[in-house]
């Protein structure tokens, strides 16, 4: 192993990336765990917002529909970086105001929670559009039939709408998950220790910029490729009983 | 006329009044006295944002055409590199790519005396070439994937007809294949260009002074937090709106008088 690294001229890189200090490998992995935590949280929060948003857009009153249209348009037109800063300051301000009113001192907000709140709201706007499209793709007759059977709305959603729309929603949601993992990198700019910031700190203190940035890129790429495989499975599961996309197109 | 009527529904008028009230409150209650001081800088930043956006989109799209072509019909020794390029670009965060280029190349170049003494060195010492390079590559990566789908979606019969007319391969590509592919993906391209606009503030992290960097400077200088950010968001909304209108005009011109939907063309 050592000889192989020597031949490839990677001894130095392997030393820098080793998991035990003085290597920085552990820092990168810790950053990756933080990133994934935020991505999971934000994706979940986005799904919840998206489900309510999609129902609001499809079945809500005119005012709700207009408000949701403004929400999705603004979030999708303003850079995530700007939204992250605005929502971050608004969030911390609101919590601190609430804390002082309740008689507590200033509260320090953990980076993970702030990241999930900020990216979750951004993801929610995209998820609203994805899920709205998916619900619209479900044949209306199926939902009407369920209504005729006298299903209450929540049961209808659980038993008919969500299973039937899954196969339409999964490709869009897979895309959203990838956006969520990549958007966590933006939290580096507000000083949260996720993978990109850990990488930059490691790179800056060892001056080995290429080694660390390429290693972090490889980590992100592994996450992306693995997610691709997982979502492929999920899509297959969601489309069970239906012809595969390629056959359907023929 | 129709849009006006759609706006004049009672609940929309009420909503507009509420928003007007919010805007008025913002104008009166928040601090805007910093605007005259920073206006020239902000205009410069706006200009730089637009300039970077246009340059990187044009260069990126020119790169995306061969990338898409290689993936759609190229031999394996072109298709595999093109596909891996797109996968890597789409699979890693743009911020990481920008930092890799700026800090990585930026620390590598000074080690070579040949580069230091070359005529390019004054440019390579600045940040914007790296910003343009990173954003161009990112746009090319995403659009390469889009163009792959676009090239393979053009109906085979069209190309066969062109071949039957005895068109040379390049003429066929220029007259039939490329225009149809671009027309099919214009709506997608509009969306991707807005995504590219949203990516431009990232270059502020490598000291390129564009719109976002100006707002950060205002925040750092005056400790005013919300006002510059809100104004910044409004600016980006306006640029995104302009991009949408521009692409709508392209689309209208692209379909010409024929008004065919892509589904009709394909059958």
Lay out the secondary structure.
The complex is a heterodimer of chains A (250) and B (267).
Chain A: H1 2-8, H2 11-17, H3 25-59, H4 62-77, H5 80-101, H6 111-137, H7 140-148, H8 153-183, H9 195-206, H10 209-238, H11 245-249
Chain B: H1 2-7, H2 10-29, H3 35-73, H4 76-91, H5 94-108, H6 113-116, H7 121-124, H8 128-153, H9 156-164, H10 169-199, H11 211-222, H12 226-255, H13 262-266
Helix pairs in contact in B: 3-4, 3-8, 3-11, 4-8, 5-8, 8-10, 9-10, 10-12, 11-12
Summarize the structure.
The complex is a heterodimer of chains A (250) and B (267). Chain A is mainly α and 250 residues long.
How would you describe what is shown here?
The complex is a heterodimer of chains A (250) and B (267). Helix content of chain A is 80%, strand content 0%. Chain A has 250 residues and is mainly alpha-helical. Chain A has one domain (24-238): MetI-like fold (Orthogonal Bundle). In chain A, helix 3 (25-59) runs antiparallel to helix 4 and helix 9 packs antiparallel against helix 10 (209-238). In chain A, 34% of the residues are buried. The model of chain A has no long low-confidence stretch (mean pLDDT 85). Chain B has 267 residues and is an all-alpha fold. Chain B has a single domain (31-266), classed as MetI-like fold. Chain B is built from 13 helices and no strands. In chain B, helix 3 packs antiparallel against helix 4, helix 5 (94-108) crosses helix 8 (128-153) and helix 11 packs antiparallel against helix 12. Chain B is flat. The two termini of chain B are 35 Å apart. The model of chain B is unreliable at 257-267 (pLDDT under 50). The chains are: A mainly alpha (250), B mainly alpha (267). Chain A binds chain B through residues 62-63, 66-67, 74, 76-83, 85-86, 89-90, 178, 182-186, 188-189, 196, 199-200, 203-204, 207, 209-210, 213-214, 216-217, 220-221, 224-225, and chain B through 9, 11-12, 14-15, 87-88, 90-97, 99-100, 103-104, 107-108, 194, 197-202, 205, 212, 215, 225-226, 229-230, 232-233, 236-237, 240-241.
């Amino acid at each position: 192993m050592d000889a192989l690294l020597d031949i490839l001229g990677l001894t130095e890189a392997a030393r820098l990336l080793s998991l035990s200090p003085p290597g920085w490998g552990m820092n990168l992995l810790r950053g990756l765990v933080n990133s994934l935590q935020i991505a999971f949280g934000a994706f979940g929060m986005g799904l919840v917002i998206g489900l309510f948003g999609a129902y609001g857009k499809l079945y809500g009153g005119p005012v709700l529909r207009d408000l949701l249209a403004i929400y999705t348009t603004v979030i999708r037109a303003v850079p995530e970086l700007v939204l992250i800063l605005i929502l971050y300051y608004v969030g911390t301000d609101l919590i601190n105001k609430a804390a002082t009113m309740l008689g507590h001192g200033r509260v320090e907000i953990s980076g993970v929670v702030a990241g999930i709140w900020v990216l979750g709201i951004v993801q929610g706007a995209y998820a609203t559009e994805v899920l709205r499209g998916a619900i619209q793709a479900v044949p209306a007759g199926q939902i009407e039939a369920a209504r005729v059977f006298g299903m209450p709305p929540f049961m209808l959603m659980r038993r008919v709408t969500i299973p039937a729309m899954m196969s339409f929603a999964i490709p869009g949601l897979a895309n959203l998950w990838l956006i969520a993992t990549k958007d966590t990198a933006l939290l580096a700019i507000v000083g949260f220790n996720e993978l990109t910031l850990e990488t930059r700190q490691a790179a800056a203190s060892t001056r080995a910029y290429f080694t660390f940035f390429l290693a972090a890129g490889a980590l992100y790429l592994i996450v992306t490729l693995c997610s691709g495989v997982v979502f492929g499975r999920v899509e297959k599961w969601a489309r069970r009983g239906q012809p595969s996309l390629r056959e359907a197109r023929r | 006329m129709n849009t006006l009527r759609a706006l004049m529904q009672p609940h929309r008028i009420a909503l507009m009044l509420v928003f007007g009230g919010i805007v008025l409150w913002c104008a009166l209650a928040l601090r805007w006295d910093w605007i005259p001081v920073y206006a020239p800088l902000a205009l410069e930043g706006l200009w730089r944002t637009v300039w970077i956006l246009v340059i990187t989109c044009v260069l990126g799209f020119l790169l995306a055409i061969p990338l898409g072509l290689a993936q759609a019909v190229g031999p394996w020794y072109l298709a595999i590199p093109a596909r891996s390029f797109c996968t890597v670009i789409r699979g890693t965060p743009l911020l990481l790519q920008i930092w890799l280029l700026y800090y990585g190349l930026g620390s590598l170049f000074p080690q070579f005396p040949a580069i230091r003494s070359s005529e390019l060195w004054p440019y390579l010492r600045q940040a914007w070439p790296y910003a343009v390079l990173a954003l161009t590559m990112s746009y090319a990566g995403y659009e390469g994937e889009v163009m792959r789908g676009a090239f393979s979606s053009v109906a085979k019969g069209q190309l066969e007809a062109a071949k039957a007319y005895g068109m040379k391969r390049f003429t066929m590509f220029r007259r039939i294949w490329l225009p149809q592919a671009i027309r099919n993906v214009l709506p997608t391209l509009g969306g991707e260009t807005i995504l590219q606009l949203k990516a431009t503030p990232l270059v502020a992290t490598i000291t390129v002074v564009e719109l976002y960097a100006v707002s950060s400077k205002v925040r750092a200088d005056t400790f005013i937090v919300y006002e510059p950010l809100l104004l910044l968001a409004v600016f980006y909304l306006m640029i995104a709106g302009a991009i949408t209108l521009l692409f709508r005009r392209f689309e209208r011109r692209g379909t010409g008088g024929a008004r065919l939907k892509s589904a009709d063309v394909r059958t």
